[in-house]
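Sample pair:
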Amino acid sequence: MSRPNPKHKSQKQNNLVKKNTVGGNLIFAPQQIDTYIETQIVEISVDKITHQPLIKTSPYKGIKRFNLGDREYFFGRDALIAKLFNAVNESSFSLVLGASGSGKSSIVRAGLIPELKKSLESQKFYDFIFTPNQDPFESLYRCLLSEEKDYRFSESDVDFVREGKDNTLPQLISKLKKNEERWFIFIDQFEQLFLNIDPKKLNSFIKGITQVAKKGDSSVRIVLAMRSDFLEQFSFYKTLGEIANKNNIHLVTEMYPDELRQAIEQPAAKNGVVFEKGLVKQIINEVEGQKGYLPLLQYTLDLLWQKECTTKAADGCFHIEDRTLNKASYTDLGGVRGALQKRVDEIYTGICEKNENGELITKQIFLKLVNIVESESGSRAVSRRAYYNEFVGESVKNTLKTFVNENLLVSNYEYSNQEQLSIGTPKKLTQNVTIEIAHEILLSSWNKLKSWLEEEKEAIILKNWLATEERRWSKVREENKSKASEELLKGSRLDQILEFRDKNAFEKLGGLTEKENQFIDASVGLRDREYKQHERRKLFTISGLTFVAVISLIVTGILWWRLDINKKNADLIIQNINLEELWLSNAPQLQALTVGIEIGKEIKKESKATPETRMRVAALLREIVYGIKEHNSLEKHNNWVTSVAFSPDGKTIASASRDSTVKLWNLQGQVMQTLTGHVKGLTSVAFSPDGKTIATASWDSTIKLWNLQGQVIQTLTGHGEGVTSIVFSPDGNTIASASADSTVKLWNLQGQVIQTLKGHQETVNSVAFSPDGNTIATASWDNTIKLWNLQGQVIQTLTGHIDWVRSITFSPDGNTIATVSNDNTVKLWNLQGQVIQTLTGHSDSVISIAFSPDGNTIATGSMDKTVKLWNLQGQVIQTLKGHGKQVFSIAFSPNSNTIATANADKTVKLWNLQGQVIQTLTGHSDPVISVAFSSNSNTIATTDTDYTIKLWNLQGQVIQTLTEHSDSVISVAFNPNSDTIATANADDTIKLWNLQGQVIQTLTGHGKQVFNIVFSPDGNTIATASRDNTIKLWNLQRQTIKTLTGHGEEVNSITFSPNGKTIATANAETVKLWNLQGKVIQTLTGHSKQVFSIIFSPDGNTIATASRDKTVKLWNLHGQEIKTLTGHSEKINSIAFSRDGKTIATASKDKTVKLWNLQGQMIKALRGHSEGINSVVFSLDGKTIATASDDKTVKLWNLQGQAIRTLTGHDKAIASVTFSSNGKTIASASYDKTVKLWNFDLDDLLVQGCNWARDYLKNNPNVSEEDKNLCDDIGNKK
């Protein structure tokens, strides 16, 4: 490059007149271009600049890149643009290389492309510009469908691009490019191709580029722009590297001082503004020699312009009165290096002052927009693009908007086909809003962000890698479900992901998405399944046995018996894992329940099933039975079901379909009538308020009124295009219809038009009456909502949605209007047209909405195949999954308990919103701190801090409330016969009760609070421990047998040995062993802090003590310490022996449970809880462990440390968990003041499951004949 003449005076205007003679066999340009190589500088005086028309808007870009429309303000790069112009004419492939912030994208977008267009004015020049993002083929596909360009391909033309094959790019050109066209393909930020993209797609995309480049088509050019620090990646792709090496690499260097002067002065001069003398030189001196300064320079100049705009003109806009950009203002901004840092800090501080979570929200936003790339040369941060719907919550979106408005983040649109977005209409492209950092210079210029990146570096790398892997898995699962397991996480990477998820490391990045959690859970499921298969294979390998011994075992049948047991259990577990995948997927819930019943019946008959296998099956079936909401599936339409409605009495459902029919169903899923008569697909159906008339709307431009016998009463004609929506007025005398002809019509029941409402500019999608019948609301493709009176006058126009408004409804009280849109949001409005709430959560267009009749719930249906239920505060209550395609329509039953959904998968689904209710014991007014089963499992006792004890049956009914105590109840115990309850109280007394709630005895004698109470194994003796430093033994005749003294401090724990002959007590750091005569046998010392729990092993030979010193010690009966169990990092809250006495479980505040053998070796660490664990217990058969945690969950584990199930439902921390003596029920006590009973009784679960599914199994035409009889041998609910 020849260096420009530096002797240029201030305020020059660059007159770009070049002469490039292009000869040879070109030719990308159709003719030679006559311009001058050198740049002619025309001096313009300051006076002339300041007297030309003043343009008030800033001519500087901030940190955003220059684009195609910015050519007239893009100065200082003429020499490089000329060089690139010549290179593109001579070669089919060019690589523009530069450091971050060097301006490589801007040079191509605002320099090269406009010059090429100008030289090819007589030709059809098409530029295709895109960045690879997560999928380069998807990005190319969306580029081809862009509505902003002068080309426009149909989706069917370019759909093959998404297949992502080696020849996709050459095929695109040969198939769609016409001979007279010149194609310029610009792939910006090419480095993104090497960031977490599917290797197969990466290779295919690069092969396509090299094929086009090698072909050398003179009418096609490919230009790549890439950060220079990624050039090493080319070495891994031989052909791409060879092409680049053929003089096709063009380095973007820093600007010369004179070029810098042009870039600084000329934009301002073009708008009629000059710089104070000496300021331009000061700026040049500050930035010269610095790396990546151009975006900072543009940002500072833009801020400087805004700062000088202090005078308000008559048009309300501010401008620069003296037409001068001054040194003082520049200095106040902090100069080029300080301006961005200072401004971002100001914005960030303002956000934090307004919102207490401002720091976390800002951090989540920016870290979601960054990736960390690791290579041999080190790690570096790069910008990544995220979809707007990844940012959830009003506060997050408001913060996002602030940064977008400040031009620090950029909001763009990507175009995508979302199937058919409007019923019966041609496919339309919608725009997915994306967010990205305006320029990567922000990553190195904002100190706060730099520190966040350093802190969360590992989590960012892992999170973005996980997102890429999840997308790949989801895509494979959609295309070929049988191969999806091959894409799941495995090995150490899965362990690392689980570790980060368990410690909530991803929360600082905005958390994991629902799909990412599903991906992880499916990976864990596969890991568990493979473990089981591995264990199964091990039994087939008989190590160390001679051939004769093997033959001998086979002959005796022992080997075969063992192998058969293992095979049966492995098969059942695999079936159960497959069922879990089905349940967690988007498959219909009733399918999962049907399979669950089948497995449940199979395991009941299988005598060789192990207790663990039975628990796994029962636990999953319990989750399905108590979690299912889909109650029936109506499946006799032959095309999309587009609308659904309940009759006013709730006994009949009407469904309208694109198959041109309406079907009337009873609640059992049987078709009562099929209404035929329309000649095109139906869009809407409605019952009259008296339930005697049905109205239907169709794309045949008519409305039909029917009686319940299926006869047409009236056909209403008058709309010029298809009718999209229909509704009756509350009094039933008027019908309103909306149409694709942009109008709404009001009709009387005789079929006469009363009013035609005109005002919308495009199709009206939806119409609704207010409950009082005086107002009509309409929603349209023109992105607006209109409110009308009955005279057809517009009362209000509501704006706020940024895409089609798909559906509208009034709340039952008429005070709120709810709308849904293709912009993925739900909005609630008051009658004055103000937005009350914006509900976000759907990942695709929201197309249907309904209020429950009681007004408490809003239901929305989406293209994302889900229905969401919201409360009036905008919080998601439930998400209903199981639709195969988009949900077109939603209707509530009159009692608000059932919703019907109409789907593009040709079904109507009925959802019972109550579901099967988990038995919850409510009635305590304070946190429940203890729960216990009677020995026969028929009665439950609960205690709280409100001085009461409650006795319950298994149906959740209170049998008795024991309220005789005058102070807090500290401890409660059943005697072994389950007919007596003992309670210890803070008022120094112990009370004995019968099950009728009567006090049998009151035991007095302690001088202070009684901490603990326990019955001897034979039930004849009661031991109590007190703060008065004593232990007392009592018989049931109220007599004190013995008072045990010897502890110097309060006694906080007491227990009997299994044979009832020894009592162990704890106070402070010591434990004492006593005989029944009250003599101390042994004193156990060794803990350094308070001992809070003592337990005997089942055989009575070992004692385990847990202490605040974070250890558990094992002792023999002679008081000798056997082992000290260390490893917990926080205090231990609970300990338990397995039933065989060989395993000890310890639960800790450190979020883990550890399993130990009697030699003190840790066998397994159970990880999965996200908060401290308060309680651990073994099942009666010793095969299952239950844990209760502050994270509001109970988890079930096997002895290998694998989580079998997680039980959710409590709203606060869970204090205690216990098994019933028959092992069929788990009870959990929580600080949410409730106790929940978790039912694992397989017989009862099968009864409940069959009761739920009977109508579906009997009446659904797609249920197999075998499954129709699945529940014939299972009775009704007990």
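The longest helix spans residues 558-584.
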